[in-house]
Amino acid sequence: MQRIGVFVCHCGTNIAATVDVKTVAETLGKEPGVVISQDYQYMCSESGQNLVKDAIKEHNLTGIVICSCSPRMHENTFRKAAAAAGLNPYLVEIANIREQCSWIHKEIATATEKAVILGRAAIAKVHLNAPLTAGESPVVKKALVIGGGIAGIQTALDIAEAGFDVDIVEKNPTIGGKMAQIDKTFPTLDCAACILTPKMVEASQNERITIRSFSEVTDVKGFVGNFTVKIKKKARYVDETKCTGCGLCTEKCPMKKVPNEFNMGLDNRSAVYIPFAQAVPKVATIDPNYCMMLKTGKCGVCSKVCSVGAINYKQQDEIIEEKYGAIIVATGFNPISLDKYDEFAYGQSPDVVTSLELERLMNAAGPNGGTLLRPSDKTHPHTIVFVQCVGSRCDDSKGKPYCSKICCMYTAKHAMLIREKYPDTEVYVFYIDVRTPGKNFDEFYRRAVEQYNVHYIKGMVGKVTPKSDGKIDVQASDLLANEQLHINADMVVLAAAIEPDKTARPLATMLTTQMDTNDFFTEAHPKLRPVESATAGIFLSGACQGPKDIPETVAQASAAAAKAIGLLCKNSITCNPCVAHSNELMCNGCSSCEKVCPYGAITYIDKEFRMPDRTTKVRRVASVNPAVCQGCGACTVACPSGAMDLNGFSNSQIMAEVDAICK
Amino acid sequence: MQVNDNKEFQPLIVAFCCNWCSYAGADLSGTNRLNYPTNVKIIRVPCSCRVNPMFILRAFQKGADGVILCGCHPGDCHYTSGNYFTRRRMTLLFSMLDFLGIERDRTRVEWVSAAEGAKFAATMNEFTEAVKKLGPNRRLEDLRCRKQ
Ligand code: FES
Known about the structure:
heterodimer, A: alpha/beta, Rossmann fold, FAD/NAD(P)-binding domain, 18 helices, B: 4 helices, 38% helix, binds FE2/S2 (inorganic) cluster
């Protein structure tokens, strides 16, 4: 026989002003199974909780109902109180008579009536509650960082520093990401490579960090503390363990006409290549799309010149399986493709470039050795026009609705660097708004305008037309002077919007994390949990979560590392006991539940059953992994035989609530 | 609103709300003191996809006059895909109920996020009005279940 206690809270006057709490307590006291029904000023206070605890002990209660505020508020408080009094915490139910009753209704009579009904429903449910125990599952003390840009490197370094093993998976042949391609950083104008490359080296030398370059994550299974990840190590046709990175093969390779992606295709590289001088790992990679040996079987020069015999044309993709406790996503960003922007003549003239291409053009390790020359005829440009917000803050389907955040600052940086190095070059910047929030950012922008005389013009560029004399006509409007302008430019630089990397979406599916409509990963809470994803054990680092500059990226990377370390420090984690379970006697192994489970928590096992005639029969039945199941209940509805049920929200419990409300 | 003062018909409305978005949205309309009728009684479920069509049938059978199911916006489900199942299941169920004589206006699926307290209250006001216009549910009610 159930012995249920009901406790009605006044919440000061929050509840008591609109709900007649005494009547509620009295009426509910007459419900079957209820042995004690009390009301109190503040149930959640110390003395209120003691009242509950004492009642549990004194009346030997088998379940309690608290009529109070939302369970989202104090369910845990009362569960803890119950546990302290020796009652299983899952034998507590809350009737929400504040947020969903007293606060929304005005009439005392009807509000009281509703409060009684809500209380009844909770009593009906608690009758059927079963004691549950939260399981524990061990934590694998190793983290996976996906993406080897500055975000991934920083996260990995921090985690390694705390004493845990970390793997970095990077899809390119080297780590370093976008920052490796950047020339100088704002607002200090120090050289990006000078601050990045030591970090890359540090990561490669740290014995706790394993860099898996030229690899991709292909499958993720498991759950917080215990992920099993498949990583595809793409064939680079070079034995990493043997290659010393001497670069002789890249010099001798006869195939030299491959667009160099590190320099944004502005020059060429050979078919066997090392992306850049400071690459980590410094190992050659053969590009199978261009290598003559791999394509036609004739050549083999690199294997002849390699003194350590590292070249292996027969290398195959390899799948590695590893276990991790935490996963940090650091997949970063890319500039958008400008194919749809015909009006800016990108693709029609080599002298219309994106900002990232300009970075390479100005970089000492870039195609021109650091001298800014027009890509078309290698002459010095005298007039340069910058176009802001290309694809950012666009309402149409062509661009992105958000602000890419970093463009205003890097354009000011470019303009300043050009004016400093080539004072005879006129620089125009067309902008919609200049946005420079950040430490020393606005000062930096003002310096570009005031000290370096960069012409900032508020207005949009309407059309860019390459002319036959090699110049470029830029037609624009000056909104402040209200006039149309034509500028005869030598070069045009487009501040292309940035978007999440293309690999992010398939990865989000594998990780069962959420993304927004722009494919940025969604954080668990925009204010209070900005570096965690809503999926436990998955953390977000850097621009995969939203546009960011380098300091913000590094800050977020360290924050994500701190969260991951917090998880890795634990030996085990408690799991939510409100998970699905299947009644094996009713299950007929139809697989309906497995198909709807978003977590892959359901597997099938062959089980022996004793039949009435004493024979045994082997049947396929569903089995739920309670550590993987998150308790959504999709399977319970999909199950045609009613074998699946959910702890804490069972079919009979919800039915009982429906019945109590409809009585 | 008074219960039976002027003998106005007071429908009984059962609202299933998913824990992560809609239940929080309902709480928010309380926190913001946005009124909606007492006719609406909320049942908390972990996800909108936890709602078995049987629960809805049972509610109608036991005398509910309208049933509304609230979940996270498509794409925002805490469990990634739960509300897509809800959407498909309920489209089927509601057309079947319509065939049985439970008018379309008595059933509804609504996406309410945790931030949409105002939307929750407005939806409940609207829905209650719509059900009120239809009068009591006589089609599926099992008279043996009725209170004497
Ligand atoms: S959790 Fe809200 S609909 Fe799935």
